Amino acid sequence: MLHPLAPSPAHIERFIVEGFVRIDEAFPRDLADACRQILWLATGFQEDSPATWTRPVVRIGHIPHPLFREAANTPKLHAAYDALVGPGRWLPLGSVGTFPIRFPSPEDPGDCGWHVDMSFGTENEPDFMKWRVNVASKGRALLMLFLFSDVGEDDAPTRLRVGSHFDIARRLAPHGEEGLTLGELASTGFTESAHRPEALATGPAGTVYLCHPFLVHAAQPLRGRVPRFLAQPPLVPSVPLDPFRDDGNAAPVERAIRIALETQSDEPTRHTVTGSGEAC
Q: Would residue 266 count as lying in a domain?
């Protein structure tokens, strides 16, 4: 039985088919406002002085502040993690990852290519293009987008290729446990998912997008006037994902991979998903 705060069965089915779910009011707006003030200090820019906003994007590393932990661990989000990954199969977040903060600028930010996020690699490997992902999504149960500011269509919302997690699962399947590096995946320019429709990760501060780890996505320049504050942590599994489990307890994130490998249709909406599942 689903938790009352969890995504509905319809949202769960859409997560499996489309590769993401939007969680509205995942954490309170006043908490988003407080976190944003911490991030302003970390940028070195002045909120009330656009003349100091001298770069199109500023990347800030992990900030182990209790306010960020609070935002990532609300009852609503815990219920969604349970629904998508399975109770007891994920680790609580101690932070919300890194922060790509985007500012109005005529300068090309240089980081707007399509990609998937890597999940494992050699310790202390400085070249992220050599990090890897495999068909069981070793080391990552979800890609997550935390909106700490209001994000409209002109505010550099992340672009999402709807259903592209199917394409990546099929691409990874022949490579087993070793998987592929980002460089190897990017060698095709992610053209296998170019036919997919796009969605934009918009919403008010406090919105969270929970995405399948194979979802192809891209940044874009900020065209509005207000900086965009976002965090992009992974949800780390506490036990390995297994898209081939046959015990009847496959979580939606695992079921999506299995559907991709058992079918070859390029039209995700043709798939019918039954049984319990989670968010979209």
A: yes
Return the DSSP state at 198: E
Rounded to 5 degrees, φ, ψ at 35 are -65, -35
Cα 106 to chain center, whole Å? 27
Q: Is residue 39 part of a domain?
A: yes
For helices 252-262 and 75-85, what crossing angle results, to 10°? 30
Domain count, the chain: 1
In a domain, 4, yes or no: no
Tokens 């815990």 locate to 78
Residues 213, 173 contacting (CB under 8 angstroms): no
pLDDT digits (tens, 9 = 90+) for 37-78: 999 999 999 999 999 999 999 999 999 899 999 999 999 999
- pLDDT, residue 248, reads 85
- φ, ψ of residue 161 in degrees (nearest 5): -90, 110
In a domain, 58, yes or no: yes
CA-closest candidate to residue 54, choices 62, 45, 65: 45
Residue 246 makes CB contacts below 8 A (sequence gap 6+) with none
Q: Which domain holds residue 183?
A: 9-270
CA angle at 232 for the pair 258 and 77, rounded to the nearest 5°: 70
pLDDT recorded at residue 3: 86
Q: What is the pLDDT of residue 265?
A: 58
Q: How many residues does the chain have?
A: 280
| Amino acid at site 188 | T
What CATH number is associated with residue 57?
2.60.120.620
Two tokens, residue 101: 């903060």
Cα(25)–Cα(70) distance, rounded to whole angstroms?
Answer: 14
- DSSP secondary structure string, 226-272? S-B-EE-PEEPBSS---TT--SS---HHHHHHHHHHH---S-GGG--
pTM above 0.85, yes or no: yes
Spans of the chain below 70 pLDDT: 1, 122-125, 265-280
